[in-house]
Write a structure and sequence with these properties.
Organism: Weissella viridescens (Lactobacillus viridescens)
Helix content: 55-70%
Number of strands: 0
Number of domains: 2
Shape: elongated
Pfam family, one: GtrA_DPMS_TM
Radius of gyration: 21 Å
Structural class: mainly alpha
Protein name: Glycosyl transferase
InterPro entries: GtrA_CellWall_Glycosyl, GtrA_DPMS_TM
Strand content: under 5%
GO cellular component, one term: plasma membrane
């Protein structure tokens, strides 16, 4: 199931059915659950995320499943509930696309001005573009994606951004010069697309579990 695979990738939770409503929850967690603004299936999904972030063990007990009339009584709304469940993933992707388009555009402009003959040119273009797009990305992720979760987020994000800048510049140079020794803006920009795509997946994990990690209840 797509939801289970995405949940495992983005959160590390290995659960066979993320949307089951058959759950036994200790009463001590009731006050926390009542603070959730979500309803329906997104409430169940957020419950899992909160348990993971709070270090609460989740235990699955297999049971026999019997559907009456092909599960006609289910209230799952395929489009609406799927959007709600994947909301954080989709917001992160949106934030990433906006920041990435800004970053790649600025990178191409700066690289055109500085040239592509050396590693230093690629690195400086990467740094200049990332500093600007990073401000936009941090604001979107903090306010929209992770909803102001975490402590000392700016400092942790800056450290991540520096590491990501260095890796991005190095990967861009390595990929571009592996393909061709005669550097040009189009080739370097394409190489950056590949390198940053890989780094984006890693960045989500770091931002979710380190930078904007939810405070324990």
């Amino acid at each position: 199931m797509l939801t289970n695979k995405l949940t495992h990738f983005f959160t590390g939770l290995d659960i066979s059915d993320t949307q089951t409503g058959l759950r036994i929850v200790p009463s001590i967690y009731e006050p926390v659950l009542q603070t959730f603004p979500e309803n329906h299936f997104e409430f169940e999904f957020k419950m899992l995320l909160k348990a993971k972030d709070s270090g609460i063990e989740i235990k699955e007990v297999p049971i026999q499943t019997i559907y009456i009339d092909d599960n006609a009584s289910s209230h799952f709304r395929v489009i609406a509930d799927s959007i709600s469940i994947y909301a954080q993933f989709m917001k992160f992707i949106f934030s990433g696309i906006v920041s990435f388009l800004l970053d790649i555009s600025l990178f191409a402009i700066f690289l055109q001005l500085m040239g592509t003959e050396s590693l230093s040119s690629v690195m400086w273009a990467t740094i200049a573009a990332r500093l600007i797009s990073g401000v936009v990305n941090y604001g979107l992720n903090r306010q929209v994606v992770f909803e102001k979760q975490g402590d000392n987020t700016l400092m942790k994000y800056c450290i991540l951004m520096v590491v990501q800048m260095v890796c991005s510049g190095a990967l861009t140079y390595l990929i571009a010069h592996t393909i061709s020794q005669s550097g040009n803006v189009a080739l370097a920009t394409g190489a950056k697309l590949i390198g940053d795509g890989i780094l984006c997946l890693l960045s989500f994990q770091v931002q979710k579990h380190v930078v904007f990690k939810r405070r324990s209840a």
